[in-house]
Amino acid sequence: MGERLQKYLSAAGIASRRKSEEFITAGRVTINDKVAQLGDKVEAGDVVKLDGKVAEAQDKMVYLMLHKPEGYITSTHDQFNRPDVMALIPKTYPRVYPIGRLDYDTSGMLLLTNDGALTQALTHPSHQAEKVYVAKVKGTPTEKEIEAFSTGLDIEGERTAPASLKVTNPDQNGASSVKITLREGRNRQVRKMCEAIGHPVVFLKRIATGGIYLGELKRGQVRELTSAEVSRLKRYEKS
Ligand code: URA
Hints:
Low-confidence stretches: none
Shape: elongated
Strand content: 25-35%
Bound molecules: uracil
CATH superfamily of the largest domain: Pseudouridine synthase I, catalytic domain, N-terminal subdomain
CATH topology of the largest domain: Alpha-Beta Plaits
């Protein structure tokens, strides 16, 4: 049996799967002191080394959910010196990284982990996890516009994958509440899609990712995922 070497390395938090493949191809990885090849498998008891150092999971895997408030960036470097989400993660946790991103002006669920394999599975372009948003948009989308949103829109020369938009509360002083479900994660995608059907977003919040819900978590608060939630997300590693 055994586990593919690149999967072993990414699960140990050493590097992403793609980066691990590069390390293997470059001859930097050994199994039991023999230079490994792409496609090699790791069996129980094998000693894997990267650049001569034993490669094993140093940190325990951590899976966190943050209710990101508006006014924080998801990346860790910002030319404008705006606060980033890492400032909201207690220092008692090992270093974690956001799974995907939310815009500066979007609030809601952001998952963070040091599990490289899971991050890769959830953000893979061809089978991204489903994400659910609630939004307020200008005006009230018509049936025809909702249909266009669902079947695909042309955004910067690329067609969007099937998505869904439901109006949950129309006509509130010229705006409507909507619920949006997407499987893609292009930059500012919800905003661009709503703009494309003529109903710009005035408020945007993510409430779910891959079947995991934000629930009652308060703005700015962090919690660990339950083991049931982690198992639910890990199903994406097999798809
Ligand atoms: N779509 C957006 O437009 N913004 C986000 O933050 C997430 C999805």
